[in-house]
């Protein structure tokens, strides 16, 4: 092999994995163990003091999870990653490392409904204050920044509608104010968009969706871009101040460009505990091996379905950035040239009742709250994922009463179109 970096398809299969040193097993084994035996007392002491890397207990590190962590770090182009129990845990541990009580972060208003709830309600318990900005208006993020702002948060392609974020514009604002940009890359995956190439500092994922890809396990990932300078910055004491539990170690000094990932592991996983089960890491790793093939087919199928629905008489509008007429088409071509993702919304002329009827009449599409499965999925956000939001919040989040969200799977598009046509005319 030369110095040339392997391509994306190769990394998706090989990054982080080697035949098992103990057995020669070619697939990554599931290290289904809670704990790991120390070599001797000195080894144990150095592990606990963070002087040596190694396994202590599967809440903190696990060899199966470590392969997943290295793989996503390679695919995103980050310095290190941490696998956690869910996408929400990834967001929570990220904010826990960045915010103190009384601090703020600016978040894009077009987000996964669960993230909106988490930010508006649960985070209040920690004294973390979300300030909302308009995904479509980067200047609104800058206006929302105050001396207490510790991060900007957005999704690359935003849930539930096909919204594409101008990541580079948000990164320019974040850099001007010297705060990190956190990008939830769940809907795009690194196959479509690699946020670090556009100036993001931290990437989070719900691995439950397209990375795992088969609708069979909940998981999350935090990826450190290694780009933000924490050292000497009093606003980020978790990274820049001596840690009493580690004999005064300063994480940013000891771990440099992967200090954020270390903070997620030793202050997040160790103390707060949302660890990923190694069995789920195994399933997500298997999913990632075919990510490039699956994402391309997801995108191709989604474009075919969106094109068909855009001329259907029962459909008022289709919000899919892959369509040339879409308002996000130019951003999609710039940020996501391989395709515009597989999740999009349609507005039905018949409003709320038509949305409820469509989800009830579809046969091949499953009516459920998930995205990024091999199977095609459908949901009516106003009556389900986004029902806790007020009506105006629903509309700004792209989840008004007439909106139905589709996550297009890997079936034959002709069968999906037949199912949709039958359900819409029923
Ligand atoms: C699903 C999802 C989450 C939450 O992830 P879980 O794995 O369900 O906890 C966060 N962000 C986005 C964009 C999602 O789609």
From TrEMBL:
Keywords: Pyridoxal phosphate, Transferase. The modification N6-(pyridoxal phosphate)lysine is found at residue 209. Pfam families: Cys_Met_Meta_PP (PF01053). GO terms for cellular component: cytoplasm. The keyword Transferase applies. GO terms for molecular function: cysteine synthase activity; O-acetylhomoserine aminocarboxypropyltransferase activity; pyridoxal phosphate binding. InterPro entries: Cys/Met-Metab_PyrdxlP-dep_enz (IPR000277), Cys_met_metab_PP (IPR054542), OAc-hSer/O-AcSer_sulfhydrylase (IPR006235), PyrdxlP-dep_Trfase (IPR015424), PyrdxlP-dep_Trfase_major (IPR015421), PyrdxlP-dep_Trfase_small (IPR015422). GO terms for biological process: cysteine biosynthetic process from serine; L-homocysteine biosynthetic process; transsulfuration. The keyword Transferase applies. Coiled coil: none annotated. It comes from the Bacteria. Its cofactor is pyridoxal 5'-phosphate. PROSITE patterns: CYS_MET_METAB_PP (PS00868). PANTHER family: HOMOCYSTEINE/CYSTEINE SYNTHASE (PTHR43797), HOMOCYSTEINE_CYSTEINE SYNTHASE (PTHR43797:SF2). Belongs to the trans-sulfuration enzymes family. This is O-acetylhomoserine sulfhydrylase. It comes from Methylobacterium gossipiicola.
């Amino acid at each position: 092999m030369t110095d040339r970096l392997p391509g994306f398809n190769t990394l998706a299969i090989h990054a982080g994995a080697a035949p098992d040193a103990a057995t020669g097993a070619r697939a990554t084994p599931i290290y289904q163990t809670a704990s790991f035996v120390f070599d001797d007392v000195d080894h144990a002491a150095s592990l606990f003091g963070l002087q040596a890397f190694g396994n202590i207990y599967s809440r903190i590190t696990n060899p199966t999870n470590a392969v997943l962590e290295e793989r996503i770090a390679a695919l995103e182009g980050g310095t290190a990653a941490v696998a956690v129990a869910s996408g929400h845990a990834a967001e929570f541990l990220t904010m826990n490392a960045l915010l103190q009580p009384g601090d703020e972060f600016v978040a894009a208003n077009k987000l996964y409904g669960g993230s909106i709830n988490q930010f508006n309600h649960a985070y209040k318990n920690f004294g973390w204050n979300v300030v909302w900005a308009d995904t479509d208006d980067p200047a609104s993020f800058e206006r929302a920044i105050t001396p207490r702002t510790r991060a900007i948060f957005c999704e690359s392609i935003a849930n539930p509608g096909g919204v594409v974020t101008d990541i580079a514009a948000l990164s320019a604002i974040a850099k001007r104010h010297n705060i990190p940009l956190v990008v939830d890359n769940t809907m795009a995956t690194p196959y479509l968009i690699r946020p670090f190439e556009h100036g993001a500092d931290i990437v989070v994922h719900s691995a439950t969706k397209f990375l795992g890809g088969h609708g069979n396990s909940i998981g999350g990932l935090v990826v450190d871009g290694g780009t933000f300078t924490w050292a000497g910055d009093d606003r980020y004491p978790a990274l820049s101040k001596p840690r009493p539990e580690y004999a005064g170690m300063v994480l940013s000094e000891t771990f440099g460009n992967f200090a954020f990932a270390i903070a997620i592991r030793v202050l997040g996983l160790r103390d707060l505990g949302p660890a990923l089960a190694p069995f789920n890491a195994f399933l997500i790793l298997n999913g990632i091996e075919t990510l490039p093939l699956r994402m391309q087919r997801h995108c191709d199928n989604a474009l075919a379905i969106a094109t068909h629905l855009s001329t259907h008489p029962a459909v008022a509008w289709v919000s899919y950035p892959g369509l040339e007429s879409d308002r996000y088409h130019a951003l999609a071509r710039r940020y996501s040239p391989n395709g515009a993702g597989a999740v999009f919304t349609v507005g039905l002329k018949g409003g709320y009742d038509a949305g409820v009827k469509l989800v009830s009449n579809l046969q091949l599409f499953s009516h459920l709250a998930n995205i990024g499965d091999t199977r095609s999925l459908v949901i009516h956000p106003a009556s389900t994922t986004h029902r806790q939001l007020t009506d105006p919040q629903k509309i700004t989040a792209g989840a008004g009463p007439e909106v139905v969200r589709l996550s297009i799977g890997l079936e034959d598009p002709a069968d999906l179109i037949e199912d949709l046509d039958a359900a819409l005319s029923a």
